[in-house]
Structure formats: C-alpha cells, structure tokens
Automatic annotation (TrEMBL):
Keywords: Repeat, Signal, TPR repeat. It comes from Paenimyroides viscosum. Residues 1-20 form the signal peptide. Pfam families: TPR_16. Coiled coil: none annotated. This is Uncharacterized protein. The keyword Coiled coil does not apply. InterPro entries: CellSynth/LPSAsmb/PSIAsmb (IPR051012), TPR-like_helical_dom_sf (IPR011990), TPR_rpt (IPR019734).
Amino acid sequence: MNKKITLSLALLSFIFSANAQDSVNDEIDNAIKYGRYDVAKKELYKLVRSQPTQGKHFYRLGLIHLNENNQDSASYYFKQGLRGVKNVDINNLGLGKIGLLTQKDKEAKSKFNAATLNIGPKDYQTYLDIAHAYTYAPKPDFDLALEFVNKALFLELEAPEPHIARGDIYFAEKQFVDARRVYYETSKRFPNSHLPKMKLADVLRAGNEFEDAIKVYDTIVSKDPTYVDVYKQLALTHADYARFKDDKALLQPGVENYFKYHGMLGESIDLDNELAAYLIKNKDYKALGDLVRTKWYTRGDNFFMYRYRAIADFQNGKFLDAKESINKYFDVQDKKDQILPIDYLYKGLAELEASRKEDGTFNEAVYKKSIDEMAKAVKENPKLGVALHELGMDLFKDEHFEQAYFVFDLASKDEKSPYYVYDMFYKGNALYMASEKPMFNDQLQKAKDNLDSSLRKTPTFEAYLISARVNRNLNTPTSLAKMEKDYEGFIDLLTQKGFANDSAFKDALIEAYTMIGNYNQTVNKAKATSSFQKVLRLDSSNEYARKQVQNAK
C-alpha cells in the first residue's frame, strides 16, 4: 500500500513538473513571438543552466539574438545547441538562416538539409521556417522557398499556415494580386482562422488601400477582441495612413491601438522600447511623454527611458528637463557604443537651449562650441543629415523656429547633402521667423547671409520671397534695393514654373507688386504705377493700390 502511494505521488509529481515545464516553454515562445526578448532571455538563461543538454533552449536564445541582429551571439548559441542531446537538429536551422544572411548559400543549404534530416511526420513548421528564410534573404530564392512550402503542404494540408506561406512568397515578389487571391482562398478554407484575414489586410495596406485594410482588421476585432496581433497591425496601418494623407489626426487611433497591444502583453523593457520607437517615428511626443511617466517607476532600470524622456521633453519645449535626462542617459549607459549620433545631437541642442542669457540671446562662443561638438556626430554618420533635415522640418512646421534653426545649421554643414539648398533656406527662414525675439544681435543679417547662400546654389521662389522680406526689415538703402530684386526674382521664377495664376500664391504676388511699387515711388514712378496696376488685376478691391494709381495721374 505504501509503495502504491509513493508511486502515485511520484507519478503526480512528474505530471505537475511536466505541466509546469510546458507552461514555461509556452510563455517563452509567446514572449519571443511578441518581441518580449528580455522576458524570454531571463527564463532561457535559467533553462540552459538547469538543462544544458536540451538543444531547443539554445536555439531559442540564438533566435532572439538573430532577431536583434547580433549574428555572432546567435551563432554561438546555435553551435552550443548542437552539443546537446535532445532537439539538437533545430540549431542547424538557425545556422542555415545565418548562412543566408551572410550570403553563404552552400553552407545554408547544408545546414537546412541537416535540420530536416530527422524531421517528424507532422513537423511542417521547420519547412515553413526555411521557406521564410529563403523568401526574405538578402538575395531571395522564391523557387526554393516554394519547394519547402510544398514539402510543408505534403506533411499538413489541413492547417492554414502552409497555404499562407504560398501567399507570402507572392507578397514578397510584389505580386499583390496573386497574394491577395491565395489569402482570400485560404480565409474561405479556414473561416475560423484569423491569420489569412490578417494577411489579406496586410496586402491591402501595402497597396495603400488603408481604409479597406482597417475594415478587415476591425472585423477581426469584432469577432475576437482578445486577438493581440490585430492591434499592432491597426496601429501600423493608421500610422501609414496618416503619413499618406499628411493628416496627424489619422494617427490617434493608431496610437490608441498600439497602447492597447502593449498593455495586453505584459511588462517588458523591449516592448516599452518598441512602443517608444513607434511614437518617435510618428512624432507623437505627447504620448511619448505619457509613456515615460507611466513606465518610469516600474521600468527605471531601462536606460533608454532617460533617452525617451529627453526626446519627449525637448520636443515638448521642456529644455532644462531634457538636458537633465539626456545627461543622465549618458551617465548610466555603460555600453557607449549604443549611444547614437542623434543622441549627441539632442544632448547638444538641450544644452544649447539651457545656456541662453537672460535677454534670450546666446553667447556666440557657447553657441559655436555647441554646434562644433554636434557637428562631430553628423560627420560620424552621413545618414544623420537626412534625419536632421526631417527633424528640422518637423520643428519648423510646429513653429519651433529657434530649434529648427539649430538643426538646419547642423544639417547645412554638409554642402554635398541633397537637402543643402533647402537647409540653407529654412535656416535663414527660421532666423527671420524668430526675429521678434532674436537669439543673436545681428539675426536678420545672419538670415540674409543664409538665404543668399541658398539662392547662389539654386534659386527658388521660396528663398526669393523670404529674402525680400528680410531685406525689407533690414531697411537700409542697400537692403531695400536688394529687396526689389528679390521680389522680382520671386515673380519671374513663379511665372517660369507656371504658378503665377495659382490662387495659393495670390497674396504673395500682391505683396511683391505692392513692395516693388512702394520702393519705386521715389525712384521710378512709371514702374511704381505699373506695379500697383498689377495689384489691382489680382485684387480689384485693393484700395491702397487704387489710391496710388489715382495719385499718379
């Protein structure tokens, strides 16, 4: 009797242990699927110590590092996994993926063959993973990908994933009609699966059919509001739609969906960073500030939170707070190689803003030192010039003219930049727009010099117009003569480009002819009268121009 009880307890203990192990493995797989790599790593590091012969643990660690673009670390774990006893072949799958990414095709093929040598009778997923690797390799091989999809279909015809993989190949080849057909057929064959419907919406989104894609995603939400994946895709689609329409209001539902997706998955530093990256990319700095405040106490060990708080504070005009946060980020970040050139930029900009004198102007020496230090970051990363231009444009559109000037000043250090002419124009324009509370004693002169540089490189009607306004405000005999030439350049270039009759430029043309008329009243009365008559052609109700024409008779 005692032996039976002991046996029963041992068996019960074994069952509970197995169930607990399955639960941990499910949690790890779920964490990897949704990018909660910090959570998955924590559990996997425990498992590789307690179960060093289980090859699958090493594979999953390698897969995480591969997804994080750490190929050397991934390779290390895959090779460690091959030294195990159980489930070792799957590590060849990981090494095969690295082979394709490093364009060692023969090595990849050899590893994939090894991974499938002892494949189980229902293990179609390994074939799909290989098909996916060939589909999205630096040099895709769609024919080989299809071969592996067909092998998966041979093993399992009654699951949606192999059928979807066929559509994925068409999708990757940009054969959207065929991809849509496959996904549609699969959704009919497997009406209870959300996957084919999600893929169908993905194709619609890729074709800029955003409203239709959102409708499909919303249908999935209505049927299964607990289906996590759909909320992220809704967030990404709304963001694409907002950029496509250049309408920030369209982004708000996307932000709400991303927060919902984020909240359904549980705590994760990696997920926090992913959401922050989404908000930065889509320039929702208010929501970024809300995220940082919400997560600060629970995720204070996340170094990147200092960075995100600095960006949010800077973009929201809290420059002293931004300076404090970015300096803390530099202090606590032990891996200095993770500090990006854009971080140095924010550090410099925040310090620059915090160094203003009481009258709002800058000490020229402090300004020059800060700009020189930030310019180093630009030189280290040529791509930063494009990012600077985009950041400057965002700041300018939001009427943060002073900050826009700093950014365009940095961007314009590279005369070979494709944006150089526009960077110089916006640099001068920003100085002009901020001239009521000048940062520099000779602010309008600086604006004029920058606009002149832009016009010398490539004349644009925008630069002519702002240069004319700057010269008008300088109000010297020399600048007023230059003002007339600038307004004439604006009119001529506008006419050449066929915009002279565009209603969008009506007010600017009236301004130009009026100012030319005013300038010539004492210099060339006939030209003055002619200019005011042109004003009346544009606006017959303009009383000022009418009086000037009448007075000339």
